[in-house]
Design a protein that fits this description.
Number of domains of chain A: 2
Strand content of chain A: 5-15%
Strand order of the largest sheet of chain A: 4-3-5-6
Radius of gyration of chain A: 21 Å
Oligomer: homodimer
Order of helices and strands of chain A: HHHEEEHEHEHEH
Helix content of chain A: 40-55%
Number of strands of chain A: 6
Structural class of chain A: alpha/beta
CATH class of the largest domain in chain A: Alpha Beta
Distance between the termini of chain A: 71 Å
Shape of chain A: globular
Largest sheet of chain A: 4 strands, parallel
Chain lengths: 198, 198
């Protein structure tokens, strides 16, 4: 029978990004070094578990009927940006370069991990495309084989039949990145994505 | 006014070893990706907050009247190993090389961080030394200036007056460590700690 401390440590260890040592350190912090932080975390987690859910329209985090982005009338209603996950959406928002709507797929197609189209948030994507009259879709999926396959699937099955213009975000050298530090795949993407210079 | 999600993220960010991104990732995992892990964590934290406290004798984690080590009668009652923190004690236990008792100081002397003798777990150390008849004390404090100062203070103020034999753990090249990878201070400790070879 594990002690309460060990059960807590094991549960923390299962969280993303935490290993044995960091889970031990967190558990000690929450229980011994700063016990008030343990009590605070219980309260905040309870509150968040009860109030946060996925937005029924776009899949973003949401504490009411629609998420902040879906209910923001100042955003461009013509543009829809499709992302894989909520962290991706939040990174796009932090960049501050996009003012349209989003749709969160909650993953990408991955036969190896057993993720098929039925696991993605596609039903509401279809109904939004039919009802909301978007004029352009931007695919902001990752630059890997699974992202590629997902884009291909979406284009064939969803966007093409509806004849909506679709683009995919650019790939290449990251900002501040020098050629010597870029890997071969990035350089290949950069060459493929070259634009006429004038 | 912050949302419940942001309040949770900020509370996670204040925990040791977590930054903005890892706190966001954890919060999303606990609320959206695996909501059952959020509920589980609430339960385990509550349980642990209510049952785990510092052992009144040695300062180790404890869920009853005395910790597992203090109440284990099979351990050598003559040896006392003084460590800074509970993680230090747990590392010593994992190494499996010591079978005596422990005393956790809950820190080390550090004038820069405002930690004086009054902040360390010294009262119960003194009463244990007087009552429990230890025959040897091993100082397992860190190999830095503050560890050094703490050892010096303990020796002058506590151990010397009681005439208890005291040793400090060895310093030098770590196991598997090659000379070229050791920093200058380690090599200096290793030279200082040389032992006759026969």
């Amino acid at each position: 029978m594990l002690s309460a401390f060990e059960r807590l440590q094991q549960s923390l260890k299962r969280l993303p990004g935490l290993g044995y040592r960091s889970a031990e350190r967190l558990a000690l912090h929450l229980l011994v070094e700063k016990p008030e932080s343990g009590t605070e975390l219980i309260e905040l987690l309870k509150e968040a578990v009860n109030s946060v859910h996925a937005c029924p329209a776009c899949g973003n985090l949401c504490e009411g009927e629609r998420c902040d982005i879906c209910s923001d009338t100042s955003r461009n209603p013509d543009l829809l940006c499709v992302v894989e996950t909520v962290p991706d959406l939040r990174s796009m928002e932090r960049a501050g370069a996009y003012r349209g709507r989003y749709h969160v797929l909650q993953g990408k197609l991955s036969p190896i991990h057993g993720v098929g189209p039925e696991h993605l948030n596609l039903e509401s994507l279809k109904s939004r495309l039919e009802a909301d009259g978007f004029k352009e879709v931007i695919l902001a999926l990752s630059n890997d084989i699974e992202g590629e396959a997902t884009c291909h699937y979406l284009q064939e099955e969803i966007f093409s039949p509806l004849q909506i213009p679709v683009s995919r975000i650019g790939f290449g050298l990251p900002s501040g990145g020098g050629i010597p530090y870029a890997d071969a795949t990035t350089l290949r993407s950069a060459l493929d994505g070259r634009r006429s210079y004038d």
